[in-house]
Amino acid sequence: MNDTIYFDNAATTRVRPEVYEAMAPYFDGGYGNPSGIYGASRAAKKTVEEARAKVALAFGAEPDEIFFTSGGTEADNWAVKGAASANGGGHVITSATEHHAVLNACAYLAKKGFAVTYLPVDADGFVDPGDVKKAMRPDTFLVSVMAANNEIGTVQPISEIGKTAREGGAYFHTDAVAAAGHIKINVKDSDVDMLSVSAHKIFGPKGVGALYVRKGTKLDPLLHGGAQEHKYRAGTENVAGIVGFGRAIELIGFEMERENKKAEAIRDKIIAGVMNAIPHTRINGPLKNRLPGNASFSFSFIEGESLLLLLDMAGICASSGSACTSGSLDPSHVLTAIGLPHEQAHGSLRITVGRFNTEAEADKLLKELPPIVERLRKMSPLTI
């Protein structure tokens, strides 16, 4: 992919060289199982705990409130299903634009007899904290609203939502997979009881993530087996992945402000260029309170899959929404939730900027994209 321009950083990211270097020793000499008592195991355990402290520091948590998982999907499922199991029944509130890891976990609970409320969002994808308050019931035990949307970049008012949930006697979970590394989240200040995060979105390895669980939160295990992760999450720890996760989140903490400014500059250049050059185009999501690297568009009269294929032929990687739904023929649930008709939702393009992108790559995109859209519109029976 050396000659390829990669603008799909919300789907996954390249592992940073510093992260790879930190991980490498644990595939060979440092392969001990952290659950053992001999020297190699104690060394592995020490590195896991050092990484745990780094993840905790990033979110204002205590190290013993961080539990490593296989990624964001497991963390989301654990938060939703684990809270439900511990509660035994009742009511969950979430939003219509959550990641499918939360939505499908809630759908599973509904089949088990739990009540689930899916809150609407406005045209920019925001959840109204007032709607959360109105939806609260005496048996509401969980509110789950993502910190930022992975498709359209909307940064939610999680502090207000967390306060509302706490006042109503419910736990508040936020899926911060898309937000981590881009916006600062302090779990104590935001009244967050559980938070999900994944390493591969922040230039770390795939296959590792974490769930923050505030002390005192009633949560049943999702996986049953050994006594790893303080008896909360069974399974031998992914030591190399955890080390890489710790290093990635440590680096992000040092660089977030600078990297955000760079990403915003490239993003804004792309948004301005696309909106000026291509008529019948909509920017999805807000212009303010938006993830710094996210630019989401809907182009009338075309189909997003064809657009992606032609961009790929031009050496540019992008997406039409969440990578987790790219195999589906249905339009994005996020775009329909903000009010787009199906035909316009199908013509979407998501550009997500990361630390390795440059302004020159944005110029290349702005050169290639308008003629591709024009070509597709000439072939489309929908064009007016």
Task: Give the topology.
Elements: E1 5-6, H1 17-23, H2 39-58, E2 66-69, H3 72-87, E3 91-95, H4 100-111, E4 115-119, H5 129-135, E5 140-144, H6 158-167, E6 171-175, E7 194-198, E8 209-213, H7 228-231, H8 239-277, E9 281-284, E10 294-299, H9 304-313, E11 316-317, H10 333-337, H11 342-345, E12 348-352, H12 359-379
Helix pairs in contact: 1-8, 2-8, 3-4, 5-6, 8-12, 9-12
Kindly list the characteristics that best describe this protein.
384 residues; alpha/beta; Aspartate Aminotransferase, domain 1; Aspartate Aminotransferase, domain 2; seven-stranded mixed β-sheet; three-stranded antiparallel β-sheet; globular
Q: How would you characterize this protein structure?
A:
With 384 residues, the protein is of the alpha/beta class. The protein folds into 2 domains: 5-12 and 257-379, Aspartate Aminotransferase, domain 1; 17-251, Aspartate Aminotransferase, domain 2 (3-Layer(aba) Sandwich), CATH 3.40.640. It has 12 helices and 12 strands. It has helices at residues 17-23, 39-58, 72-87, 100-111, 129-135, 158-167, 228-231, 239-277, 304-313, 333-337, 342-345, 359-379, and strands at residues 5-6, 66-69, 91-95, 115-119, 140-144, 171-175, 194-198, 209-213, 281-284, 294-299, 316-317, 348-352. Strands 2-8-7-6-5-3-4 form a 7-stranded mixed sheet, sandwiched between helices. Strands 9-10-12 form a 3-stranded antiparallel sheet. It has a two-stranded parallel ribbon with strand order 1-11. The longest helix is centred in the C-terminal third of the chain and has 39 residues, at 239-277. It is globular and about 70 Å long. 49% of the residues are buried. The model has no long low-confidence stretch (mean pLDDT 95).
